[in-house]
Write a structure and sequence with these properties.
Elements: H1 3-17, E1 25-35, E2 59-61, E3 67-71, H2 78-93, E4 100-101, H3 125-141, E5 151-156, H4 159-169, H5 176-202, E6 207-209, E7 223-225, E8 229-231, H6 248-251, H7 260-270, H8 276-281, E9 284-285, E10 288-289, E11 307-310, H9 319-326, E12 330-336, H10 348-363, H11 371-387, E13 395-397, E14 400-402, H12 404-423, H13 430-443, H14 449-460, H15 464-481, H16 486-508, H17 514-525
Antiparallel strand pairs: 1-3, 1-4, 1-5, 2-3, 5-12, 6-8, 7-8, 9-10, 11-12, 13-14
């Protein structure tokens, strides 16, 4: 265990006891496919009774009309975020009639590419841009990949912490925003070095339905189970494998998160640089838009990664410009599968564990990642995704070969210290209990969600769709029977009409053509933004 890490934990534990540490703040984004009672993806448009998917702050869609996305507000307590997410499910089930929400990351039954209906966000320029962006994803990667669901965990660290960290580091270079961004990128690098641990613990997609591979091919890594199911015996997360969210074109970007400037400049290069294969697809067919442009990335959101630096954007800012102007505000963890055994796909104990993991990433030493290490990190990640529960698996750490359990126990020892630090703000020890609860999973892969799902399929002989549909039915019945907070239910009722009215107002105010709108958007997106010094800070 690093002596400097232990000293840092001790330093902040004393400050936390004085009430000077503050609480983490978090929000959840949770996706889930709407399905029919036979376990097939829904072909019904997003229900009008759920509000406008363009303007509703909490209930929208991701790629397709069928892919619901629930968004919680920022919460100081994990339990508050979970309860809000639960109420969004309860409310939605009151509007779904006979439909269900699929509880797994790998999709329900599909009927080819066209069965995944691209989401329609209305007649406004901003709404049509969202739709055309999704058309571009279709022509580049196909729609089936976009039917996969997951959870994004957005976390910001206490405002009080940054100045305390800066004082301890003796770092007076630039503004406090500059310092916060540097430390956030250190957190991200440490996360990337060890995200394999989260994929092992919480990966929950070792199986898929044959309809996910419409050409009928069966990759060598998969074996047949029943008539319709394909499984990978030791896989943790097929969602995060080369069957899921992967893009070989993006791999040449080589973003290893060593600095904010490198990250922003690389993304700006990608949204400005044509790619021959995408040029061959065509941006338009006649007057019909096929994609926003033929560049490596249409927009920054197209870049896939396990974790992203984020900042809330202001008017007329792209995500990179917001980061460039004001620095990193929070991180978005993107490697979390839906656990089909949990009604919300995740639970409070896992949020507590993730909080300890992120604080550990922040307070640990995290040097820059050279290119050769970047490649090794990708290899470790791939190995755990494909073979994480294989007892013979070995990962590489600084030239050493380590088992998941051996390396994992070493990390858990340090996570326990981060958990104790966070628990100084709590009644009881919820973070320490979370770390303790998942410790046995290191030695027994059968306890993990991927292990449990595969064991169920093998023991019962069920198809993947059959087993997951049974879980969806159970969860739907429970949500439909549960009461909601009355004030929240009333607020959601009001938001339905408010969001539809807001969409109508946006469309009525439209004056420029979509071509002109898009040209202005990308002209603005190519402009670098200069960070402004804070009062009392020097540039």
């Amino acid at each position: 265990m690093s002596e400097s890490y232990t000293d840092t934990i001790a330093y902040f534990t004393g400050l936390a006891a004085q009430g000077r540490f503050g609480r983490l703040r978090r929000g959840l984004e949770k996706e889930g496919l709407r399905i029919d009672r036979a376990g097939r993806i829904s072909s019904v448009p997003h229900p009008h009774a759920l509000g406008s998917k363009l303007t509703h702050p909490y209930i929208t869609t991701d790629y397709s009309e069928a892919l619901l996305e629930f968004i919680t507000p920022v919460c100081s307590l994990p339990g508050d975020a979970m309860e809000f997410l639960a109420d969004l499910h309860r409310y939605t089930y009151r509007q779904l009639d006979a439909e269900l929400i699929w509880p797994a990351s790998m999709p329900a039954g599909l009927d080819g590419n066209d069965s995944v209906v691209i989401a329609d966000y209305g007649r406004s320029n901003v709404g049509y841009m969202k739709h055309v962006y999704r058309r571009g994803l279709d022509v580049r990667y196909g729609r089936i990949m976009q039917s996969i669901a997951g959870i994004h965990y957005n976390v910001s660290l206490p405002d009080e912490l940054w100045q305390l960290l800066r004082e301890r580091d003796g770092d007076n270079e630039g503004t406090l925003d500059d310092y916060r961004s540097r430390r956030f990128f250190g957190l991200i690098r440490q996360f990337r070095r060890h995200s394999w641990l989260l994929l092992y613990l919480f990966g929950a997609s070792p199986a898929l339905d044959r309809s996910f591979l419409p050409d009928g091919s069966v990759p060598k890594k998969l074996r047949e189970h029943g008539r319709r199911t394909l499984v990978s015996p030791y896989a943790t997360s097929l969602r995060m494998s080369d069957l899921g969210y992967q893009n070989k074109v993006q791999q040449q970007l080589k973003i290893c998160f060593n600095s904010l400037a490198n990250y922003v400049n690389t993304l700006r290069h990608a949204i400005s640089t044509p790619w021959p294969a995408y040029e061959a697809l065509g941006v338009k067919k006649g007057s019909d838009w096929q994609q926003l442009n033929a560049n490596i990335l249409q927009i920054e959101n197209e870049y896939y990664s396990d974790i992203r630096p984020k900042r809330v954007t202001r008017h007329n800012e792209t995500p990179s410009q917001a980061l460039e102007s004001h620095g990193v505000e929070y991180v978005e963890v993107r490697c979390l599968d839906l656990d089909p055994f949990l009604p919300l796909g995740i639970d409070e104990q896992r949020l507590r564990f993730l909080d300890a993991f992120l604080v550990w990433c922040l307070l640990s030493e995290s040097p820059w990642i050279p290119d050769e290490e970047c490649d090794r990190l990708d290899d470790n990640r791939r190995l755990v995704v494909e073979r994480g529960r294989d007892p013979a698996l070995r990962l590489e750490q600084n030239g050493r070969q380590r088992s998941v359990a051996d390396w994992g126990h070493e990390i858990f020892a340090e996570l326990a210290q981060a958990a104790e630090l966070l628990d100084t703000l709590e009644e009881g020890s919820p973070h320490a209990e979370a770390v303790a609860a998942f410790t046995p999973w290191l030695d027994d892969p059968a306890l993990t969600p991927s292990g449990r799902l595969l064991a169920r399929l093998e023991a019962s002989g069920e198809e993947f769709i059959e087993a997951t549909l049974a879980l969806a039915e159970e969860q739907a019945q429970a949500f439909r029977e549960q009461a909601m907070q009355p004030a929240r239910e009333e607020n959601l009722n009001q938001l339905v009409e408010t969001s539809h009215r807001q969409q109508r107002d946006i469309e009525a105010a439209e004056s420029e053509s979509f071509d002109d709108f898009l040209e202005a958007y990308f002209a603005n997106a190519r402009e670098p933004r200069v960070a402004k010094a804070q009062p009392g800070e020097r540039q």
